[in-house]
Design goal:
alpha/beta, 13 strands, about 40% helix
Amino acid sequence: MIFPLDHVRSCFPGLARDEVFLDNAGGSQILGGVIDGIGAYLRDCNVQHGATYGASQRAAERVTAGKQALASLFGDGPGTVVFGPSTTQIVFNLAAALGPSLRPGDEIVVTEADHEANVGAWRRVAAQRGAEVRTWKIDRARQGLELDGLAALLGPRTRLVCMTHCSNVLGTIVDVRAAAELVHRAGARLFVDGVAYAPHGPIDVAALGVDGYVFSVYKVYGPHLAAAYLGPELFAELANINHDFYDCGPYRLQPGGVNYELVAGSAAIAAYLDDLGEALGPGPDPRARAWAAIAAHEADLAEHLLGFLRSCPKVHVVGDSSSSRAVRVPTISFVVDGVPSPGIPAQVDPHGVGIRFGEFCSRALVDALGLRAHGGVVRVSLVHYNSHDEVERLIAALRPIVA
């Protein structure tokens, strides 16, 4: 079936403007259904929960529905889902909650390819508790994380491994399931940053075998919010960082509670995916059909852009230049010989196309690849609501720069 792009784009009010959004890894456009849900909550039941009167009951029901819908995006795991204003804040909360159980000599593994959100908090809590941080470095030649590098770091003192599912610079998908098997064999736990992967494909925490997984809802077509899945064993190790009398359930890790209207509005994300799957044809799992169609469309878009970049001798794609969905998501970074990265988006801006340059809070990766001198990378991040016409508009803007 042909991907229903016109229908998809009609679901995102921000796409009605004559602007091309190719900076989606920084934050996607928001679904109209999410906007409507937020507004409806604020209009109809903007009150505190826990009371017996009607508006309070309706408010709690809408927030519960939003929580359940967002939890469904993690697949069918037996753990707990918690929420926060951002992935960075959630990871800081988790690190603070894990801190009391860390002992001197415990080891935490972080990677050279991760966003700082899944690195800095762990380094800080390790320093406070006398634990050691070990770094899983990228393979410089292959420009990515290789499992051999992880295996060499694991041992009897390893407590936690924190890794990315997909680099927000390279776009490369890491084999989380294989990593989980290595980590669990060493008796440790695995926590995964899925921020750069979650907008592009289904998450199944049980199939991946992870102990924790986090993503940013505002990069998955929702509001500025984040969600994390925590497996039962990891959750049991975390101390309460909320009020003493909230030492139960997800409240232990949600100081002040969740943002009611944003969580309530986010129920529309899961509904959108299910509705898209239904529009694609009959079958028992509409959401799986939606994700499969999204992946195929995004791979076509990625090949459109990568084909052009590969044809330009001055351009160097950072990471794997394949468009295969088995390898990458359509987050594509590159540098251009003789042209500093900061100057390229400025030349594209007059064409009404939004892209970015920089380190994207992955400084260790940019340094490992020797790209600081370029001013970082130029990053183009596509999602399923983008079109081939938009990619062609970008290519037309890039052509005189890279020729």
